[in-house]
Structure formats: structure tokens, C-alpha cells
Input
Amino acid sequence: MPRQGSQNSSTGRRTGTRPGGKKNKRTKLLPDRVERFEIRISGAGGQGIISTGMLLGEAIALGDGRNVSQSQAYGPEARGGATRADLIISDGDIFFPECHEPDLLVAFTTEAYEKHAPSVKPDGLIIADESAVDIVMGNARTVKVPFIKLAEKEFGHPIVANIIALGFLATYTGIVSEKSIREAVEDRFAGTKYLDMNLKALEAGFKLGKEYAKKYPL
Amino acid sequence: MPLNRFTKDGHPIKFVQGNEAVVWGAIHAGCRFFAGYPITPSTEIAEGMARELPKVGGVFIQMEDEIGSIAAIIGASAAGAKAMTATSGPGFSLMQENIGYAYMTQLPIVIVDVQRGGPSTGLPTKLSQGDTMQARWGTHGDYTAVALAASSVQEAYEATIRAFNLACKLSTPVIVLLDELIGHMREKLVLKKPEEIHEEPRSFPTVPPEWYLPYDIPSDFIAHPSPFGEGYRYSITGLTHDRAGFPTSISAEITERLEALREKIVVHKQEIWDWKEYYTGDARILIVAYGSAARAARGAVEHLRRKRFKAGFLELKSIWPFPDGPLLSAAKHAKYVFVAENCMGQLIHPVKEALAGTHIRVVSVTRYDGHPLEPAQIVHAIKEEI
Output
């Protein structure tokens, strides 16, 4: 995991090497070969949490050619209620398709952040909507990103916050290639009036991720 | 629509849910009629069939409820179509009476039950394997069930194809038991090419109509009622019937009918049985599981082998008729058999029955809070016991 010399001034919590961590020159969050890498996307019903997991899984599995299982948990409500999508990436068989200790958490609500942040591996990474973080929690680094604010400001609706987040994940964490995630989003919205807006949201996410990569390098 | 990719040898690959895999399996097996009523966690099957069936000239109907749904597919089957419905616990309960009707009238249908937490409305969005016994005993009367299972998206596709072939071959309802985890999880699915799929045809009579006995009892016990509209007139009834299909109250005809219905499944059980074995050759500890519990069991057995335990795993890909032959063979060296289930313990009963003549200790490992069993829980239960 990347851990050296990084700082997230938006939380002001971590500086330099992480406690007890050894120096590690790896620059990729997701190594080329991995026994088990866990990603949890979490938020509320109606925020597109499961769609985000699905698009990310599709891009990593079909575009980047890795072995992925994606499962989900949600309540009986159509809107609201805690929702999550789990992705497990492995070069071997994936027996248990849910996260034990996520390597990467993406949280869109305070409830999701506070519930799942403590379970993230200490050398993992948390990417949270800035509105979700009241008090920084857990042992992993939290990166606060204004996905929802940007979606409302640039696109007039919070619904594309998850697509901005997908773009952000590609350029900031490298867990998925820009090409694959763009293809997955294109494929998903092909032939609908939402294609253009979603591709623009994705590009906005790519841009934001690159800015963060400079400001808060992993 | 999901992204389309291909393997090196030209097989389409998709990243889809188990429920969508069922849709592709059904379409590829020749299913051309689907009637259903949406229910979580099976709804994606109905959605997929509604989308895909018209493209291949098939028919999709959303019915008023689950009783209507299974009645409609039995009607479609009587008219010669390969037909399917999909549901979950509460809907599966409503279908039980007509499962017996399809069994009695020997009309092939496929019922997919994506199990969720019960009883009653229970946990609509959470997994369970609590319908294991309902699949076996749900309908009334002396009935012999055929039920298949799957523990991955790929297997859900293959089990569905198999279900249609077995239904058509045996002229009987076949149940595919999935659960919420397998139905909703997404994994890679490699589709078969059309030339690689064996499609068991519906049988047509070869005798002239005036000689035709729709419910004759041949040496393999399987009757193949002719699809309506082919010129063969006969009666279809849920009443116990004679070889011509008319109700009977003659003792010899009643016992002959009930025995033939059972025997056609019993004599073909080795064709129905499907299973996978892991490290069973020298296993002193054997885990038995199906569906989502099988994923945890795989993880547990890999862990135990790394720790030098002589552990093995028997994954059941068909549940009914219960594969006692494969179990006895896999448990040959076993001192303990652990039955891992996402319910309060149902599969353990046929396991105990099959091992009744042995000294093997049979232990239940269960979880029934709507969450999948974890490999660590099975490992822990084994270490506690031995």
C-alpha cells in the first residue's frame, strides 16, 4: 500500500509514514497480482450505490480482465436505508464474496462512513463524500471529496455523484483503467438521453482525481 | 445491457448476476415461454425474460400472482413449449399445489426459486436456504422431486440448461434452487456457443392417434403427453388416471401410476445427480454443502488443508433426489461429516439418513440471520467438534 510522505490536509490527520508502517515504494493501491482485494461502496438507497459497484465490477472484470465477484446488501426500501456493494478482486477463487476488512471504502453518507470506516484495513484507503465526514474515523486514511456538491453545481442534480466518484477512482487510485470505466459507463447509458451527462460527469471525476493525485498523492 | 466481450475461443463473456445467468441459460436451453410475478430476490429473472424472450419469438406474461404463473407455464408446456417461472419463498409456497399437478400430468416445467429469508415475508433482500425441504415435500401427496442447485453465476447458467433438459427428458417439473447471494451477485459468465448446447427435445408420439395412450407406462416409466394441437386427443387431469389419462379408482392402476411416477425419477437418479468433490480421497472430515454455503465450505476446506487437516468437501449441485451414492463414496474415510447450511438445518436430514448405517458423526453448521456463512465459521465449528 502507498503510505509514505502522504498527507491529507482535508482531514489533517496523517502526516509522513503511517504509524507502525514500513516504507513501501509501491505506487499502486491494487497490485497486479493479489490474493484478495476488497472494495466496499456504501451509502443510501437511491444514490446509485449498487450501480456504482456494478459498473466498477464490469470495468475491472471485462475491461481490465481480472477476476471479480460483486455482491450487495440493501434493505426492502426503494429509497433510503443503508446500501452497500462489495467487490472482491482476486487472482484465485473467490469463496466469500463479501468484505471482511475493506482495502478501499467509498462512502457517500455519514451513516455509511461511520459504520464501515472502522473496518477498513489500517493501510487501506477511505474515499468519502465531504458531506459524510463529521469526525474522521478508523485507522485508514480518509480522503474527503466533494462528489455530491460537484454533481449539484455542475450537473444540477446529485444523481451523478456516483459517476464522478467512478472517474475519481480511476485516476486517483488506479484500481480501474480510465478506458475500461468509460466503456462500462458508455455501454450502460448507450442509446439513452443520459449518456452525455454521465460521460461528462465521468470526465469531471477523472479531472478531480488527477488534481487530488497531485495534492494528496497515495 | 451489459458489456459484451469474448474469450480467445470466441465464447461471449458477461459480468452479470446469477439471475441474469438463469435468463441466458433458459434462452439457450430453448425456453420460449415465461409467466411470473415479480418478487425479490428473483425479479431480475422476470425482467430479463421480458427483455430477451421477444427477441427469439418467445412469450412473456406477467401474471396476477404465483398460482396463475405456474398454471400458465403448465398450460404452455401442455401446448409443447419449454416454459419456466421464477419466484422466491412466498411465491414458491403458492406454487406448490400446481407443482404436484405438473408432476401428476407429467408436463415438463422449470421453476427457479431464489431463496430468501423466511418464514412468511421474512427477509426479502437477504439470503437463506430455508426452502431446501419445501422443494422436496412442498406439494401434497406422494411426490418425488427433482431439484438442482448452483453456487456461482456460471453454475446458475449451467444448472438452468440442465433443468430444462432433465424436465424434458423425464417429463416432470424441475426446480432450480438458488439463493439471494447467488441470484444477486455478479461474476464473469462465459456463455456456450449454440453448437455446444445439448437441447433435449420435447417428445412427440410415434403411434397413430387412435392407438395413442398419453400415460402409457414404458420400460423407462416416462410418459410423454403429446403437445396439444398435434392431432392427439386426450384428457389431462390431476386426478389419479389410467394409461389413457382418465380418472381411475382401480387399486392396481392407482399403485401402478404412483410407482411409475416415482420410479421414473429413481431409475434415472444417477443421471440427475451432480456434484463436485474436493480432497475427498483421504478425507477424515467431510463438509457437505450447496449453493452459497458451498462457497464458504470451499474456503474452509482450502484453509484446513493448508493447516494439514485431512478435510474434504462434497458440493452438491443437485439436491433432490438426494445424491446418497456420491455422499457415501466421498465419506468413505470420514469420521465426521459437517453439513453447512444457511438455514436452521434441513439438508442435514437426508445426510443423516444416507449415513445411518455408518459410525460417522454428522454435525450441523448453520447460519440463519440473512448473511452468508463464512469460511471461518465452518472452520471454527470443525475445530470445536473434533
